[in-house]
Design goal:
There is one protein chain. The chain is of the alpha/beta class. It is built from 20 helices and 13 strands. It folds into 2 domains: 282 residues, Glycogen Phosphorylase B (Rossmann fold, 3-Layer(aba) Sandwich), CATH 3.40.50.2000; 159 residues, 3-Layer(aba) Sandwich (Rossmann fold). Helix 5 runs parallel beside helix 9 and helix 13 packs across helix 16. Keywords: Glycosyltransferase, Transferase. InterPro entries: UDP-glycosyltransferase (IPR050271), UDP_glucos_trans (IPR002213), UDP_glycos_trans_CS (IPR035595).
Length: 537
């Protein structure tokens, strides 16, 4: 009997060992490089992607700078973090409050220019990053690992593209803000008549004037992208030889096998895409964690519900006038308010308002007592609002936030728009009163939630599947449309063909008219004088 038990134990142990070895054999070595910037929503998204792939059994190497605070989950998941020296000047990518305030009052074109100027301002930061990373021993150790896949944020086009070449592994990009303008080479076929520019906040039902501006903004985008490519090429020309690479000029801002976009068509306006562009709505397809103190007591005891106000990871404070407006309006509400805020305490702050520098946003959004989510409409927050079916008041500040706000308030009709630069007590009170009392906003939010959740795979499963797909097939060249990406504006819209046809038609008309003139001139008398000079014989 004892020998039989030992035999069964041996069989089961062998089975488990084989199973584990089989899983380990299928595990890939994945390199992940988040944006080389301060902690923000882009960095948080890359952390979640790292966790998704680690949970799938893959070996993750996560590259970050020395100032980066490693999440506690990384150690549990077995994620290996490699660090390079943070730039000495510590120029931050995240704009401070005064720069955010400057953006708010800008025109769209000025905002585009500011984005490029900010790229120039942080040139020293990029230069130090390149120097610290590509001249360190760490770069050699990375090459020795022999990665099966590399994953980058699409915005890190300077460090990321050179690292992609160096590692020589299939590459997946993550576009955190949705269909971003620096991914324009990927977002073909392009339909300027029905796809609004990310800076504008237009809907897909554009007027003639809006379509005209949409084309104008697109042309400006392409112009500024040219400057970005030149900046990237400058640094690649300098640092490629230092890591044993031959410098070659590139046509694209960031070439890769696959682009994962934080969006989907239950959320975003329909648009044509190539097969290597995969929409993924958010990374919050998980159950909310239990709230800890002081949030738990504050929201559980909210008899009339509670409201959240947050402008994300960008601004920490607010100018005196506006913070007093927000505080005084909140003080007159029956609901409690959680306000993510890092500035001076407003004088009119009510007892019903909690000021905090950080919030467990997704956990709060799923709470039963939440009534309204007041948000700047960042990409991640907008996806969380839809996923949790929460009515919103959108207060966009700049860039993609206008577009996300337009999607939530116009397409899904799950909230109201408030222009930050026009905020006053009456406007803010009216918007809050409307969203709190009108049940249609909540109904529309729940409808958007149902559409967003009714997908064949969750966001985590989608990311896992496509990352493993690219690994398995050592790339995804068969999904690319290289000719489509290489066509210029005139070729893509067949304007060269149209002008050729028009030119040929004009040539035929000119030739026909010329023949008609010759025919008439041949039958026409040589002179109008009927008298002729005849010699007398």
């Amino acid at each position: 009997m004892e020998s039989m038990a030992l035999s069964n134990l041996f069989i089961w142990s062998s089975f488990l060992l084989c199973f584990c070895l089989s899983n380990n054999a299928n595990a890939g070595n994945i390199f992940i490089q988040p944006p080389s910037i301060a902690k923000n929503s882009r960095m948080a998204a890359m952390e979640k992607i790292a966790m998704i792939m680690a949970d799938a059994g893959h070996n993750i190497t996560y590259l970050a700078h020395t100032e980066y605070k490693v999440p506690d989950d990384f150690a549990t998941a077995g994620i290996h973090v490699m660090k390079y020296q943070y730039p000495n000047d510590k120029v931050m990518y995240v704009p401070p409050d005064d720069m955010v305030q400057e953006y708010i009052s800008m025109s769209i074109i000025d905002e585009m220019k500011a984005f490029m100027e900010r790229g120039s301002v942080t040139e020293a930061y990029i230069s130090n990053n390149m120097e610290n990373l590509y001249t360190s021993d760490l770069i050699t150790r990375l090459k020795e690992t022999k990665f099966d896949l590399s994953i980058f944020d699409s915005v890190d086009f300077v460090l990321g593209t050179l690292m992609k070449k160096y590692l020589d592994a299939p590459t997946v990009l993550w576009s955190n803000a949705g269909f971003e303008f620096h991914c324009a080479d990927w977002l073909v076929p392009l339909s300027l008549s029905s796809v609004p520019n990310i800076f504008t906040g237009y809907s897909n039902e554009m007027t003639f004037t809006e379509r005209m501006y949409n084309v104008y903004y697109y042309i400006n985008e392409r112009y500024y992208m040219r400057d970005w490519i030149e900046m990237k090429e400058h640094y690649h020309k300098v640092y490629a030889p230092k890591i044993g690479l031959n410098y070659t000029k590139e046509k694209y801002l960031f070439d890769a096998d696959l682009l994962l976009v934080q969006s989907n068509f239950a959320y975003y306006y329909p648009r044509p895409l190539l097969p290597n562009v995969i929409p993924v709505l958010g990374l919050k397809d998980r159950k909310a964690n239990p709230l800890a103190s002081p949030f738990k007591e504050f929201v559980d005891g909210a008899e009339h519900g509670f409201i959240i106000l947050t402008f994300g990871s960008m601004p920490t404070g607010m100018d005196v006038k506006r913070r007093e407006i927000f505080a005084s309006v909140f003080a007159n509400l029956k609901q409690r308010v959680i306000w993510r805020y890092g500035g001076p305490t407003p004088k009119t702050l009510g007892n019903n308002t909690m000021l905090v520098k950080w919030i467990p946003q997704n956990d709060l959004l799923s709470h039963r007592n939440l009534r309204v989510f007041m948000t700047h409409c960042g990409a991640s927050g907008s996806a969380e609002a839809v996923y949790n079916g929460v009515p919103i008041i959108g207060i966009p500040l700049f860039y993609d936030q206008r577009q996300h706000c337009g999607i939530l308030t116009h397409r899904h009709k799950m909230g109201r728009l408030v222009i930050f630069d026009e905020v006053n007590t009456e406007l803010l009170s009216d918007a809050l009163d409307d969203v709190l009392k009108n049940p249609v906003y909540k109904q529309n939010a729940l409808k958007a939630q149902a559409l967003a959740r009714d997908q064949p795979m969750s966001a985590s499963q989608t990311i896992k599947y496509w990352a493993e797909y690219v690994m398995k097939h050592n790339g995804a060249d068969h999904l690319k449309s290289v000719p489509t990406q290489e066509l210029n504006f005139f070729q893509y819209y067949l304007l060269d063909i149209l002008f050729s046809i028009l030119g040929f038609a004009v040539l035929v008309i000119v030739m026909f008219m010329s023949m008609i003139r010759k025919c008439f001139s041949r039958n026409k008398p040589k002179g109008n004088n009927v008298l002729t000079d005849k010699k007398v014989k």
